Amino acid sequence: MKLMKTLIAGAISLAVIPAMAYEAGDIMVKAGVINVSPKSDSGVDGVEVKDDTQLAIAMTYMVTDKVGIEVLGATPFEHDIEVNGTKAGSTKHLPPTVSAQYYPLEPSSAIQPYVGLGINHTFFFDEELGGADMHLGKSWGLAYSAGCDYNFDDKLMAGIAIYKMDIDAEIGDSGTDVEIDPTAIMITGGYKF
User: Fold this and answer.
1) What is the pLDDT of residue 16?
2) pTM of the model
3) Which pLDDT belongs to residue 177?
4) Does residue 26 surpass a pLDDT of 80?
């Protein structure tokens, strides 16, 4: 009888502990804010592209218990362009990014760090420089990331991630590239389906 009571108590205890495992087929949707900070040296003398913060959304599909595919998006970023310290124009852009992510810890861990490698495609619009329309070409480049999720239970999570993206855009047909190459930091809350 005592053994039966112990087994029942143990089963009840296990039933109330949330399962936080990452499993193949899980879908995680995260939303929050992301700051994109272009590198200070654009590759063009005297030209600097300023940073901007926007809303972000990321969706990750777990291919296995430790490997996921993430699609990262955001509302359009608007960057001021300075020439020799004076605002000379601005541009807007969208940088959707697709990455493969690796989660090294056991899938049942509440803390889930990860690293990622992916492809970024950036397209620019509403460009102005010195009051005139200016065209910046589209950019394809690698994206590197590292982050960490904290799982409150089997569904709710919070996370922080940092991305380094290779974004080089040609100014019109000049043959001159502006090297934006930003670092992006994202803070999110999320839900696992």
Assistant:
1) 42
2) 0.81
3) 75
4) yes
61-66 own/partner pairs: CB under 8 Å, 24+ apart: 61/25, 61/26, 61/27, 62/22, 62/23, 62/24, 62/25, 62/26, 62/27, 62/28, 63/24, 64/24, 65/21, 65/22, 65/23, 65/24, 65/103, 65/107, 66/22, 66/102, 66/103, 66/104, 66/107
The CATH number of domain 2-192 is 2.60.40.10: no
Sign of CA dihedral 126, 130, 133, 136: negative
* Sequence spans of domains, the chain: 2-192
List, in order, residues 6 or more apart from 133 with CB less than 8 Å away.
Answer: 127
Cα(190)–Cα(114) distance, rounded to whole angstroms? 15
Q: How far apart are CA 48 and CA 52, in angstroms?
A: 13
pLDDT digits (tens, 9 = 90+) for 104-139: 999 889 999 999 999 999 988 888 876 566 678 889
- C-beta atoms surrounding 150 within 10 Å: 15
- Distance between CA atoms of residues 65 and 110, nearest Å: 14
Residue type, 68: G
3-state SS of 72-83 is EEECCEEEEEEE
Q: How many Å is the maximal CA-CA distance in the chain?
A: 86
Q: Where are the alpha helices (DSSP H) in the chain?
A: 2-16
pLDDT tens digits along 28-43: 999 999 999 988 666 5
